[in-house]
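re: the backbone from monday

yeah here it is again, tokenized this time
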């Protein structure tokens, strides 16, 4: 699947150039269970392709990524973490738009948003094609999820 490879490449590029972290692909899935003690950044896609791109970070990984991204110590889930996670989703969304638009498709992106909680589900009620890529940061794993309407 072409988009999966490009999503992996885009995520690794963003993390090495912007977050200053080297990450590796751990596994590729089509489902994940409930998210626990996590923060999710998401961006909606509308136009010829409809769907959502989401990044799911456990709190410990979110704080480590934010610390690296902002070059400061972050020890709690605060506004900085929400901003950093939203910005990562935004950068990935921009890359996804480029990936899908190479074939001349028009796509608009929503503003990034974040949700966090001790336990929540993230799922679509539509018929979607779902790709979930788990990455290892060395301090834990996170997931990049791409849900596109069929």
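seq for it, each position gets an aa:
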């Amino acid at each position: 699947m072409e988009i999966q490879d490009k999503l992996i490449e885009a995520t690794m590029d963003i993390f090495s150039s912007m977050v200053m972290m080297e990450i590796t692909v751990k596994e590729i899935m089509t489902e994940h269970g409930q998210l626990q003690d996590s923060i999710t950044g998401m961006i909606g896609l509308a136009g010829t392709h409809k769907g959502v791109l989401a990044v799911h970070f456990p709190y410990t990984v979110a704080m480590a990524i934010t610390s690296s991204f902002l070059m400061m110590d972050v020890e709690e889930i605060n506004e900085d973490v929400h901003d950093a996670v939203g910005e990562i989703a935004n950068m990935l969304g921009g890359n996804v738009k480029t990936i899908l638009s190479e074939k001349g498709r028009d796509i608009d992106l929503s503003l990034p948003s974040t949700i966090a909680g001790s336990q929540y589900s993230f799922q679509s009620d539509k018929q979607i094609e779902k790709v979930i890529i788990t990455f290892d940061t060395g301090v834990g794993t996170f997931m990049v999820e791409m849900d596109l309407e069929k």
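The chain has three helices and seven strands. The chain has one domain: 2-149.
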